[in-house]
Amino acid sequence: MKESRTIISEMNELGRQNEAFVFVIDFDTTKVKLFKPDETDKIWWQANKQSNFAQPAINEKEIKWETEPISFSSYKKGYDLVQHHIHNGDTYLLNYTQPTRVKTNLSLEEIFHYSQARYKVLLKDEFVCFSPEIFVQIDGGKISSYPMKGTMDASLPNAKERILNDSKELAEHNTIVDLIRNDLSLVAENVTVEKFRYLERLKTNQRDLWQVSSKISGDLPENYTKQIGDIIFKMLPAGSICGAPKKKTVEIIKAAENYDRGFYTGIFGYFDGQNLDSCVLIRYIEKQDDQLVYKSGGGITFLSDAESEYEELVKKVYIPVFKKD
After folding, report:
1. How far apart are CA 126 and CA 185, in angstroms?
2. Average pLDDT, the chain
3. Which of 1, 174, 226, 303 could be 16's S-S partner, Cβ–Cβ 3.0 to 4.6 Å?
4. What is the pLDDT of residue 287?
5. What is the pTM of this model?
6. Is the pLDDT of residue 323 over 60?
7. Is residue 229 helix, strand or coil?
8. Which stretches of the chain are assigned E, i.e. beta strand?
9. Are 263 and 127 spatial neighbours (Cβ–Cβ below 8 Å)?
């Protein structure tokens, strides 16, 4: 795997030449893969309305889906360490994740085609991702980010009102909006919060969820395409999936989680030579030998409750397949 600096230089050169490319970057920013947009033998991808694959005819079948999350006691060991650091003032928001074993009658390829999501990525024989979360989008020199923080089962009574009025969710969302605004300020000017805490409904094979997002935007310099690699890497890791302050929080994440995130919570993106569309690699299933592992988690603050956070981690283990009426 090439060093990050080499990859950044390659991305900058492609941007200078206005050449299109696709990229996948892991959480640690140590594993980076570049592809041509039409390179279908190694990667299939979809970014909103852009894609590099032909959707096959799908024969609907009953989906078998069994999950084996870690025990609550195991989860709480890492959770308690996170809370120790929060109360010590080392971090005030940390995205704590854990792996869940999954048994299903679907292959990674079938999961990719069955899933309905804003972003989809299949890195052959490695992982499949069906992400609802934008990392950044660049359109005509304007860069925008849409951090997602706050998830609730849509079937709960007054779910929309409950999630918007929840003090823990509000504090978490405020923190992440501030963090992303600071991240965008590293590469752009005139950074503003254009839209604060709007709701999106996500349909899954398990249940419908309400997801809370915000929109933050800024203006890039005129020659931004020549710096496209630097622009991307300056904002990594994505603030919504680590926490604040970033550097110390990432150190705590590694101690508390005690597993390798890999490409999970990294980013995927498509650059068309001028504009860019990218996502955070969440809602993610990885192939480990002959097993499938789903990685999920949520933001922890001093207001968090261990049982509720564990329940959220478990509820996020789904595939976004529309349920039959």
Report:
1. 34
2. 91
3. 226
4. 97
5. 0.89
6. no
7. helix
8. 21-25, 32-35, 43-47, 50-51, 65-69, 93-104, 119-123, 127-131, 134-139, 142-145, 148-153, 189-202, 209-219, 243-244, 267-271, 276-280, 284-288, 291-300
9. yes
